[in-house]
Amino acid sequence: MADSRTAFPATAADHALTRKLYLRLMPFLVLLFTLAYLDRVNVGFVKQQLHDDLGMSAAAYGLGAGIFFIGYALFEVPSNIILSRVGARRWLARIGITWSILAGAIAFSPNVGTFYVLRFLLGVAEAGLFPGVIYYLSLWFPERARARAVGYFTWAGPIASIAGGPIAGAILSMRDTGPLHGWQWLLIIEAVPSLIVGVLILFLLKDSPDRAPWLSDTERARLREVHAAEAAERELLPVTSVPRTLLNPTVLLLVLVYFAMQLSIYGVTFWLPTIVAHIHSLSEFGIGVVSAIPWLVAAVGVYCYSRYSDATGRRRAVVFTAIASGAVFEALSALIGSPILAVAALCLSLAGFLGASPVFWTLPAGLLRGTSAAAGIALIGGLGNVGGFVGPYVMGLVEDGTGSQTAGMVVLAASGLVGACLVWLTRRRRRAARPELAPTVPR
């Protein structure tokens, strides 16, 4: 596919329109996913409390933390297909409201089995959120600006983790306040804003630029023109049915790449507070604060990688470099004896993995269109997110078996390197399938 920056060069008015889209859409979408991410990973801060109150072993904790992604994966594709048919506003509101209710309900788990069930249902409820927003952004932003838009959205993960650490430390200090334990207060308090934002989606989001009253007629016409031109480029790729899209070899390779990314990211996410706890003399609040530092560095990585990718059009090269660097520093974090240096290595590891994510999502969005785009993006997000189940579970099994996290971290790093190599296979496969596209394939 030709580089959209040369196919339809941006004017000063286009840049102003893009800035307007950023300001109108991204703050609320970032807030939405920040809250979702908090409710998804806040169990990482209560691992010890779950062991004390529910008798949960490290392997059981890893299973409970990761089982979220099984529900997420199973319902990702149907959720995103429904979103493309009923509109983003109503479906994203449904996702936000149901996930917040279930996230709060986990606080009342009387045993490990109930914890598993509610974490699974939380994944079912949230299924479709991330790929749904990626698809939603493709309806608004021109391709040349999409990596940065997705990058801003991806900031939600680091923002949630930066804020989540200190917040969790403060709330967990409320030990046995009233009838509840600190970990229960954490899950309940963090679910309430999610419910409020879920309701606000119905009033603040519009399904497409044509329905946005804050765009002028000229701006709406320009967006239609640019999207039509991009769609004309994608006419080189035939419209396929949803089943054929789901069996597309390039889509399946992208699933494997995203699986490797998520396996590495979430293996670290759910164990980072435990790694930080090895630094002596840190209180629970101190652990939360130090745990936020790698995510602050990751936010910088997201911005730099996505901005460079949009400026140069080098999509695959950026994704490869970011994932490979993330894997190398993840391995180093496991092999370094000093907890402080290990946390420093994790800073650079998360900067790579998180920085790759927004650029990665420009690849399927540029290859697919219509309902097949929604299905393909959902498949990549859904099956890829199974890595979020495998990562924590592998870490838990290794810790129970060896008493150490080192081997588990090395395994996750190796999977990241494999994912980086698969990025280049998608490029060669596309050239082989469509030789006429070879000179203009996104790099």
List strands and helices in order, with pairings.
Layout: H1 4-7, H2 12-41, H3 47-54, H4 58-66, H5 68-86, H6 88-105, H7 112-126, H8 129-138, H9 143-154, H10 156-172, H11 182-204, H12 217-234, H13 242-246, H14 249-269, H15 272-276, H16 284-312, H17 315-335, H18 339-360, H19 362-367, H20 370-384, H21 387-402, H22 406-433
Helix pairs in contact: 2-6, 2-9, 2-10, 2-11, 4-7, 4-21, 5-6, 5-7, 5-8, 5-20, 6-7, 6-8, 6-11, 8-20, 9-16, 9-18, 10-16, 14-18, 14-20, 14-21, 14-22, 16-17, 16-18, 17-18, 17-22, 21-22
What does this structure look like?
It is a single chain. The chain has 22 helices and no strands. It has a single domain (25-207, 241-435), classed as MFS general substrate transporter like domains (Growth Hormone, Chain: A, Up-down Bundle), CATH 1.20.1250. The chain has helices at 4-7, 12-41, 47-54, 58-66, 68-86, 88-105, 112-126, 129-138, 143-154, 156-172, 182-204, 217-234, 242-246, 249-269, 272-276, 284-312, 315-335, 339-360, 362-367, 370-384, 387-402, 406-433. The longest helix is centred in the N-terminal third of the chain and has 30 residues, at 12-41. With 443 residues, the protein is mainly α. Helix 17 packs antiparallel against helix 22.
Quick overview of this protein structure:
This protein is mainly alpha-helical and 443 residues long. The protein contains 22 helices and no strands.
